[in-house]
Amino acid sequence: MLSKRNFLVMSGLVLALGWASAASARDKTPFTPAAFEAAQVAGKPILIDVSASWCPTCKAQAPILSKLLGEQRFKNMVAFNVDFDSQKDILRRLNVQRQSTLIVFKGKQEAGRSVADTNSASIEALLAKSL
Asked: Which residues, in sequence order, are CB contacts of 13 under 8 Å at separation 6+?
């Protein structure tokens, strides 16, 4: 039987996890050519995040991107994730050589890219190029 204190602690943990997953739901969606082309045709600002689950630089970029994508100025940005290990055809299409590559598009035009950047200010400046 749970004590009142343990029940409250567990309830708080469940709520916190719920808020965390809701916040991360805005982050990125898996890349598909159809979704990417639709965002381009719509003239949306686009972020493509090429990452790998084993990459420490990608892990360092994740909270920076999550924070920036949650900001009002980037609310219309469409963010896609490309898995470095399993989406080799997309990597060739985008001319990507390494994981931790960030590419921004302004509609159909590539506006900028960076590789292995973990500086919040320069990542923010990169994202701003797509607006």
From this structure: none
